[in-house]
Design brief:
single chain, alpha/beta, Rossmann fold, Alpha-Beta Plaits, 2 domains, six-stranded mixed β-sheet, five-stranded antiparallel β-sheet, 11 helices, 25% strand, globular, binds adenosine-5'-triphosphate
Length: 351
């Protein structure tokens, strides 16, 4: 989407962010949302969602789950095939302009103009969103500083790396300080330092009351930032809760076992762990170092498994029992890790 498509001249004319949370109305209400593309692809199949004002909400899910499609409906870029969608109290179908005025949207594809400088891009967004003339210079300087582009403010965006373009895009999407922002994989391709700077910025605007709906492939990012998460799979929400609730739902703890030997040793160990009676409810994953076993009795019977592995001629070089992470949650729900090196042997943990 280009800057002008974001609602040029329509948005937040007074330049003030409406007081989030003041009227108690949810930022997002979605009931039985359905979206079928022209070619018949059912991208969203009955999604219900309620995001209170001020919440930092995260959408997780594998590629193709329907996250971007949902965000595009919320930001009025796609019309729903079915269901009702309210954004900041406005119906996306009935009053799309009102919706656009009250949101910021950072799409997966950057929407900056490569022929303009960094400063000109932010200035253009200020004009498009009606940021008061007197506030513009400070807003531009503040945003460019924040996304670490102040030193290259006069350089054309076409000279920027992918990461720099992403940072500039973040700045332009937020110039009008909207009460609700959609961030679709905002930190993809950024190095850890730049990612951290953006996280701090997102946290700061959320602390000021801005509602955020984020999609991300980085589970660490979701864990750090989000109050609540929904996991999407095949166009439906299959799990929802705070990061802590979701981790608790995995059940039990995770036993990581490091093993000597190659892939064959790891596979044999996974089979032994999968058949292990004391871990009846376990899910077992082959890792780079050995295996990872998630089970309610991981701590209680962990040493029994280590003995069984040794009796089978395998050499354990290290082990650790830990609380589940969001990676374990994701694996349990989707049967697959976000990074493709994990190999799920069995997954019997239901969301
Ligand atoms: P990603 O992280 O890859 O963006 P996602 O969860 O955001 O994944 P969507 O981009 O919403 O998923 O895609 C949901 C489904 O809709 C996928 O099967 C995708 O191939 C399909 N899809 C997306 N855009 C279109 C389109 N314009 N026409 C037809 N099908 C589409």
């Amino acid at each position: 989407m280009t800057n002008s498509e974001r609602g040029a001249g329509e948005a937040a004319r007074d330049g003030h962010r409406p007081a989030a949370g003041a009227d108690g109305r949810p930022a997002v209400t979605v009931e039985d949302l359905r979206l079928t593309y022209g070619d018949g692809t059912e991208a969203v199949r009955g999604v219900d969602l309620r995001i209170p004002q001020g919440e930092f909400f995260g959408f997780l899910g594998p590629n193709g789950a329907g996250k971007t499609t949902t965000i595009k409906v919320l930001s009025t870029l796609l019309s729903p095939t079915g269901g009702t969608v309210g954004v900041n109290g406005f119906d996306v179908t009935g009053v799309p302009r009102k919706v656009r005025e009250s949101i910021g949207y950072m799409a997966q594809e950057t929407s900056i103009d490569p022929e303009l400088t960094a400063e000109e891009n932010v200035r253009f967004a200020c004009e498009a969103y009606g940021v008061p003339r007197g506030d513009r210079q400070d807003r531009i300087a503040e945003l460019l500083e924040l996304v670490e582009l102040a030193a290259v403010a006069d350089k054309r965006a076409e000279e920027f790396s992918g990461g720099m373009k992403k940072r500039l895009d973040a700045a332009t999407a937020l110039v009008h300080e909207p009460p609700l922002v959609f961030l679709d994989e905002p930190t993809t391709g950024l190095d850890p330092k730049a990612r951290n700077r953006l996280w701090e910025y997102f946290e700061a605007i959320n602390d000021r009351g801005t509602t955020i709906l984020l999609t991300t492939q980085y589970l660490e990012e979701a864990d750090r930032l989000c109050d609540r998460l929904a996991v999407m799979l095949d166009g439906a929400i299959v799990a929802e809760g705070s990061p802590t609730e979701l981790k608790r739902r995995v059940g039990g703890e995770v036993l990581d076992v490091d093993l000597e030997g190659g892939a064959d040793a790891r596979r044999r160990a996974a089979t032994i762990a999968g058949d292990f009676d004391a871990f009846a409810d376990a899910s077992v994953e082959v890792t780079d170092e050995g295996i990872s076993v998630t089970a309610r009795t991981a701590r209680q019977h962990g040493t029994d498994l280590l003995v069984a592995l040794r009796d089978a001629g395998l050499t354990v070089t290290g082990f650790n029992v830990r609380a589940p992470t969001l990676d374990d949650v994701f694996l349990a729900i989707t049967g697959d890790g976000l990074d493709d090196d994990a190999d799920a042997v069995s997954s019997e943990v239901s969301p």
